[in-house]
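Record 1 of the preview.
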Amino acid sequence: MVSTYVVKGLCRNELFYAVTHLYEYCQQELLRLLSWQAAWQEPEPISVGKQFKYLKNYVTPDTMDQLASLLDFSSKEACWNSLIKTQAFFDVVAQDFAKMAQFTYHLQEAKKVTEYTNSLRLKDLQGK
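->
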């Protein structure tokens, strides 16, 4: 999972590295997953547009608010918060989509990555 690269960057105080992986990979995959979910629910093919510009037409305002809340990369702490919220949001959407599409979602693997993130965040905040 790419989010471990974000963790590595944050622990090494490499903010640009961490932000790039968080936005370009983790959050883009979340957007892709949301677009798949939207397409699955529509009876006809849809287009969410270039850079997901029409996704807002297929998801709830609450979902759009959640997505917007992930975009604070202004500090290391903000990036940690964004990563944790991104992981949690992705987990919920992935479980819903897997159930809807009858796919297998590896919940234990996701939990291990989340635990890893939380443990290293705690160490990082304690300065260890």
